[in-house]
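Hey,

Quick one before I head out. I ran the complex with acetoacetyl-coenzyme A overnight. Inputs first:
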Amino acid sequence: MNFELTDVQREIQRMTREFAARELTPNARRWDEHHEFPTQAVKQLAELGLMGVAVPESEGGAGLDNVCYAVAMEEISRGCASTGVIMSVNNSLYCDPVMKFGNEEQKREFLAPFARGEKLGCFGLTEPEAGSDAAAQKTTAVRKGDEYVINGSKNWITNGPKADAIVLFAMTDKARGNKGISAFLVPTNTPGFIRGEPDKKMGISAAHSCSMYFEDMRIPAKNLLGKEGDGFKIAMGTLDGGRIGIAAQALGIARAAFEEAVRYSGERQSFGKPIREHQAIQFMIADMATEIEAGRLLLWQAALLKDKGVRHSMESAMAKLYCSEMASRVANKALQVHGGMGYSKEMDVERHVRDARITEIYEGTSEIQRIVISANVLKG
Ligand code: CAA
């Protein structure tokens, strides 16, 4: 067993850590406050090859592995959790299924420019009445000649307000339940595609999401991704990878909160000494450090399995469940270390508490992760 990163993985870690410290950390509070999409930073991510980390170079990506992706996602999210999720959605939820299920023609149009970061992708599964119960899709796609006509809506679509294309899920045969769902590649400038206003959220304020409406939206039949009826499995397999991205995002948020708490504990004095000399603070630091290490091991295990091409639904769910709940615990402890200042907008730690919370919800709530884990355990 080897817990060491390879030279390439270490280099990605060093490069993304430096980039985040230089370009993301100094701006993240302002982007959050003004709900400002980090346009320039996303452009820089693209230049660094971080918008298609595990996509082969021949298809526009960086040609790296999923451990590199996890390491990079942790560092980028340590700098700015919003930038982290913009990157994660483009990599895991958009590029990954196109890479796996797209044909050559689809990859040329819908993968390469997105993996290069020239265009931005998003993932349309969630609906007002199909969140955790992803199979309860109401959006329909009806084949008419050489086209599909799509009607319905999606909501909470991260990157939606800016996306150039969407991997969209819709019912092609309602009678077949989850086996009647299909996946489509849809450019967002298609007539009949309507975006709602950006959502107003508690955290990750610089990453924009919105609802989307499809009104008699016609797309060429050749934009079907995979086969008719494969959509649910494409969505679930994609989320296995997406959950690695969100686990890494949560880990990055936890690291940011922890490192700020450690620094502050050396500056703030109480009862005549720095607070880090009190055992109460030392115990909090010990718990935070241990949980961060544990989360990283679960994350790397899931990423390694994905690199091996092994089904990793349970390991991704474990990493996502643990890292997201851990990030909230760590961010709250870090806020406690800061005392009253932790509650102030003058410090970053209140943002980390808000940003951590969503990682327990999107790409499958903690309850859904527990369902996936227990189903895998119980089937033996
Ligand atoms: N990979 C491949 N196939 C899979 C799979 C996976 N990970 N998981 C399930 N399947 C297959 C099963 O094998 C089964 O196939 P067969 O019928 O041929 O045996 C089929 O799919 C149905 O599986 P289930 O019976 O387990 O399906 P279910 O309806 O009970 O649902 C669920 C399972 C785990 C609850 C699922 O609905 C789920 O994960 N829900 C959460 C959805 C989610 O994460 N949404 C997040 C939206 S994206 C987002 O948040 C994006 C953003 O903007 C950041």
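The pocket of acetoacetyl-coenzyme A is lined by residues 89, 93, 123, 125-126, 132, 134-135, 156-158, 178, 232-233, 236-237, 239-240, 313, 362-364, 368, 371-372 (CB under 6 Å).

Talk tomorrow,
K.
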